[in-house]
Amino acid sequence: MSGGDLFGEIQDRMRKVIAEALAAAEGAPGDDEIYQRSSWLVDVLGAGTTASGRMRAQAARRIKDAAGLSIAGLGERLGVSKGRAADILRATAAREPEPPPVVAAIVTCDLGVLAGRRNDQTPPWTFIAGQIQPGESPADAAVREVKEETGLNVTPGRVLGRRVHPATGRTMIYLAAKPADGTDVCVGDPNELAEVRWLDLAEADELLAGMYQPVRAYLGRALRPRHVDG
Predict the structure, then answer these.
(1) Going residue by residue through the chain (230 aa), what tens digit of pLDDT does each one get?
(2) Quick one: angle between helices 71-78 and 31-67, nearest 10?
(3) How many other C-beta atoms are found inside a 10 Å radius of the C-beta of residue 90?
């Protein structure tokens, strides 16, 4: 079998296996199991995408350099736009291991959602967040970050979603949490934060503009006004 025939066969097998894996994940008995199976698929497929993206970028760089092409010329040779060719080449800079994910704690109570005002103003207001350390789970990291940055003890809940942040390129994991023993907060890391406080839903919409949609949907439910019958 020639190299081209072998690769074509591998492509067909991969399409079939991925389709079967997605079906098996969707058919899992319960949302917890669906989440676990789909998370495994995200991690495995993400690692494959990263490795193949670097390989493609390196090949594109060699094509460009060998032929002395401009980025526009490379795009024409590859059959893509100039902007797309530039995006492909940028992956050659990603030679270091991927940085650990960042967990954002979405801490809510009757007072609102917990947020901090950053000293560097990039962005001005954020959820309490930090990089997951080696050996930590997202839940462990969320508990640690909230304690360090606000002095608040929290009980972690479910993962609300994960994405590659459009501004930073970092993998973000958004995790719900509740106060464990009180709601008093303070600035625990004055080098990073100028202020921490609870925001109601209207304030969150104003100060945390462009929220990740699953997080905004969760806050819409968690911070819904509670009516007490008189």
Answers:
(1) 555 678 888 888 989 999 998 999 899 888 888 888 888 888 888 878 878 888 888 898 899 899 999 989 999 999 989 888 888 887 655 445 568 899 999 999 999 999 999 999 888 999 999 999 988 999 999 999 999 999 999 999 999 999 998 888 889 999 999 999 999 999 999 999 999 999 999 999 999 988 999 999 999 999 987 544 44
(2) 120
(3) 11
Nearest to 113 by CA among 209, 38, 197: 197
Task: DSSP letter for 95, please.
Answer: -
Say if pTM beats, i.e. exceeds, 0.85.
Answer: no
- Give the domain ranges of the chain: 3-93, 102-222
- Which architecture, in CATH terms, is 102-222? Alpha-Beta Complex (3.90)
The three state secondary structure string of 45-68 is HHHHHHHHHHHHHHHHHHHHHHHC
Residues 6+ apart with CB under 8 A from 100: 131, 132, 133, 134
Which ranges of 68-177 does DSSP label H, i.e. alpha helix? 71-78, 82-90, 138-150
CA 211 to CA 216: how far, in whole Å?
6
Residue 164: burial class (beta carbons within 10 Å; 0-12, 13-18, 19+): exposed
Cβ–Cβ < 8 Å for 64, 74? yes
